[in-house]
Specification:
By secondary structure, this protein is mainly β. Helices cover 0% and strands 58% of the residues. It has no helices and 11 strands. Strands 2, 4, 5, 6, 9, 10 and 11 form a 7-stranded mixed beta sheet that branches.
Length: 120
């Protein structure tokens, strides 16, 4: 089974930066979209940013201008550069990948999550 593996989380002071990475542990193909979601305790999991194989990006309003998502299609790796971090960014960040096989067959993969903690 293919697993998505996140790295780069940790503890950082407000105003600091972190760079998250996510890559599959095994071979995978036909990944149309990859992205990052986050979930704080007691709250729902929300989209942070995603990116298509063509490079089109989408960001949550709360992170626009501070976060940048990028992708290496050859490696099926997605990155999230997080700058000007705020305490409200504290959450578990999850990598997500959408596998498009056909109009009727779309699979979703999730990473195990990486903790990001921003201290004030």
């Amino acid at each position: 089974q293919v697993q998505l593996v996140e790295s780069g989380g940790g503890l950082v002071q407000a105003g600091g930066s972190l760079r998250l990475s996510c890559a599959p542990s095994g071979s995978i193909f036909s990944i149309s979209c990859m992205g990052w979601y986050r979930q704080a305790p007691g709250k729902q999991r929300d989209l942070v940013a995603d990116i298509t194989s063509g490079g089109s990006t989408n960001y949550a309003d709360s992170v626009k201008g501070r976060f940048t998502i990028s992708r290496d299609n050859a490696k099926n790796t997605v990155y999230l550069q997080m700058n000007s971090l705020k305490p409200e960014d504290t959450a578990v960040y999850y990598c997500h990948a959408e596998q498009y096989l056909s109009d009727a067959t779309v699979n979703h993969y999730w990473g195990q999550g990486t903790q990001v903690t921003v201290s004030s």
